[in-house]
Amino acid sequence: MASRYHEVYQSWKDDPLGFWKTAAAEIDWVSTTDKVFDPDQGQYGRWYPDWECNTCYNCLDRHVERGRPGQPALIYDSPITGKSASYTFEELLDEVEAFAAVLRDRGLEKGDRAIIYMPMIPQAVMAMLACARLGVIHSVVFGGFAANELATRIDDATPKAIIAASCGIEPGRVIAYKPLIDQAIELSTHKPDACLVFQREEQAADLIAGRDHDLGVLMDEARAAGRTVAPVTVKATDPLYILYTSGTTGQPKGVVRDNGGHMVALKWSMSNLYDIEPGEVFWAASDVGWVVGHSYICYAPLLHGCTTMVFEGKPVGTPDAGVFWRVISEHNVASLFTAPTAFRAIRKEDPNGELIGKYDLSQFRSLFLAGERADPETVNWAIDQLQVPVIDHWWQTETGWCIVGNPLGLGQLPVKPGSPTVPMPGYDVQVLDDAGHPLGANTLGNIVVKLPLPPSVLPTLWNADQRFFDAYLAEFPGYYKTSDAGIIDEDGYLSIMARTDDIINVAGHRLSTGGMEEVLATHPDVAECAVIGIADKLKGQLPCGFAVLKSGVERSHEDIEKELVRLVREKIGPVAAFKIAITVDRLPKTRSGKILRGTMRQIADGESYKMPATIDDPAILDEITDALKSHGIST
Ligand code: COA
Ligand code: AMP
Predict the structure, then answer these.
(1) According to the 3-state scheme, what is the secondary structure of 372-438?
(2) pLDDT (tens digit, 9 = 90+) per residue, 303-348?
(3) Measured from the CB, is residue 605 less than 6 Å from ligand 1?
(4) According to its UniProt record, which protein family does this protein belong to (predicted)?
(5) Distance from Cα 548 to the centre of ligand 2, integer Å
(6) I want to staple 242 with a disulfide (CB 3.0 to 4.6 A). Which of 33, 254, 455, 613 is the partner?
(7) Residue 58 falls within a domain, yes or no?
(8) What is the pLDDT of residue 176?
(9) Residue with CA closest to ligand 1 atom 2
(10) Counting ligands in written order, which one lies closest to the CA of residue 246?
């Protein structure tokens, strides 16, 4: 079948507002106006101004009212605990109404914020939907972040409540969440009124009288009383959620997502990009703490009337590298979305795909990869093993959905290895040089998107309009800066080559090396430091820290290195995967004092590099090479 992509993309270019008006017809609105976009509102305009809606209604009620009450809406499969559960749309709505009643009893109303700190359990999705039902703005914090990171988010979002589980479970260990929350509340200036804790069997939490409540008990009471909560009407432009993501400093950016544009874009993507029919099972093997989890575990599949999967496990080790195939065959998954790192992990354990052959995957139609560069070797292995289209697509927390991809629903375009293919409607993607001039085909430069941005993309940062402008709009007037560098070829295919800032990508998780440097700098023996991302076969990149110690420090360098590793784990969390700290005598710098992080990375990755013309002392590069070698990193 010839792809309809070019025709559809052109139809958006010819009439962008008409395109998004048609797409909006897929959503049930409380009220609409003739105005699809107001260029004068917000930082670059706002989508569907004055339209009214409720995201939870669109995810649940309308499917219960119109033909899907008994269809599974959410399947929970937890190889790590051996548990599973399934909720129909009707059952999920009942749970969410009970949840919303509990939140309302604690005084949460439209516009209030709630932080959700939960592992991959159904209650995490219920919490998000219950907030959406009330117009409460949720902010999910990934369980792998430490108390300090949680405290930063509490102070920025100033939530009325924290919704949590008593624990998360990682292979071989139970992580008690409550002490982390208590510590975070201790550290934060803002103090939430309430903490609602879902007590898990694996480890219950001690509750502080007055502030903490047993969520399960309260929900049981609300359910038994048959409490219902009508969806609260919000404006399309009202925030649905805040999701914090790494910026260039330790202070994360609060990406704001609106209600209306978000629903429209996600709904469009389910048919046209992912080629999924309502009623099918869609599985995003990510975590609700990340944007992929927000969009494609919680909201998009439910908006589309699909069954979504909540998977609490790992691609390997729970119990083996066949777990993805078991889940796909057991639950009739039509499409899987995950990060390439998960496939690298599976391939390492089961290079010949022997475990794949054990399962019936005849229902399985496509694999989507995002979150980091999909290396052609991994993509080709997946195609060979699974015999389905494997689609790389590029997006960011900021956008909430795909910027560049290969739209299976419009007909797959030819694949060019290493390229996530072409821009989705709504995105006019260009490559500019540092002075903002357009670059020709196949020339590396800054990837930008011409304003206005399409529905779902962040309108601003939470309580930080100026930071939003400075971070994204100031450098290239009229464009959104993606902070990715890349090329567009003569056929309009994009390739992402690198970040232009200090963000690194570790196992599909976005991390700031600047944030890690801020932590290392707090160690009393450290005079200065630098963190770089070095290539890793499994996780894509790994952070590697260099520290110059203050003069006169006579303690064992090995001990200090261990302390530095521990410090990052304590302050940022295990998710930073910070395991390499190296003490050195000096850091390589330019004559003006800028640390040559790029050259250090090239050395660590064994790439050939040009001696920077402005380097102060070339001999330091040899010292870095030796230090890396002595820590087992072959350069
Ligand atoms: N709560 C607490 N700790 C967590 C956690 C959570 N929710 N998630 C991860 N961690 C911990 C891990 O236990 C690990 O701790 P350790 O240093 O004690 O081993 C550390 O954080 C690093 O985790 P991770 O990077 O996930 O490494 P891993 O070795 O546990 O697993 C993969 C490697 C490849 C299997 C795993 O990263 C993976 O499944 N990646 C998919 C990525 C993904 O879903 N990305 C989302 C975008 S699509
Ligand atoms: P996050 O906001 O965590 O989704 O991370 C977004 C960043 O991850 C992007 O800016 C890219 O640097 C990287 N990224 C995401 N998807 C891809 C992809 N398909 N190919 C290359 N890089 C990607």
Answers:
(1) CCCCHHHHHHHHHHHCCCEEECECCCCCCCCCEECCHHHCCCCCCCCCCEEECCCCCEEEECCCCCE
(2) 999 999 999 999 999 999 999 999 999 999 999 999 999 999 999 9
(3) no
(4) Belongs to the ATP-dependent AMP-binding enzyme family.
(5) 31
(6) 254
(7) yes
(8) 97
(9) 144
(10) 2
Q: Which domain holds residue 148?
A: 5-313+393-450
pTM for the whole structure: 0.96
Tens digits of residue pLDDT in 38-73: 999 999 999 999 999 999 999 999 999 999 999 999
CATH number, domain containing residue 245: 3.40.50.12780
294 in contact with ligand 1, CB cutoff 6 A? no
- CB 98 near ligand 1, within 6 Å: no
**472 belongs to a structural domain:** no
Provide the pairing of β-strand 390-392 with 404-405: unpaired
Main-chain phi, psi angles of 320, to 5 degrees: -155, -175
Both 511 and 429 in a single domain? no
Number of H helices, E strands in the chain: 20, 31
* Residues 339-374 pLDDT 10s: 999 999 999 999 999 999 999 999 999 999 999 999
261: tokens are 């544009």
% the chain with pLDDT above 70: 100
Asked whether 292 lines ligand 1 (CB < 6 A), one says: yes
Report which DSSP code applies to 276: -
pLDDT at 462 over 80: yes
102 within a domain of the structure (yes/no): yes
Look-up of token digits 């009471």: 221
DSSP state of 315: S
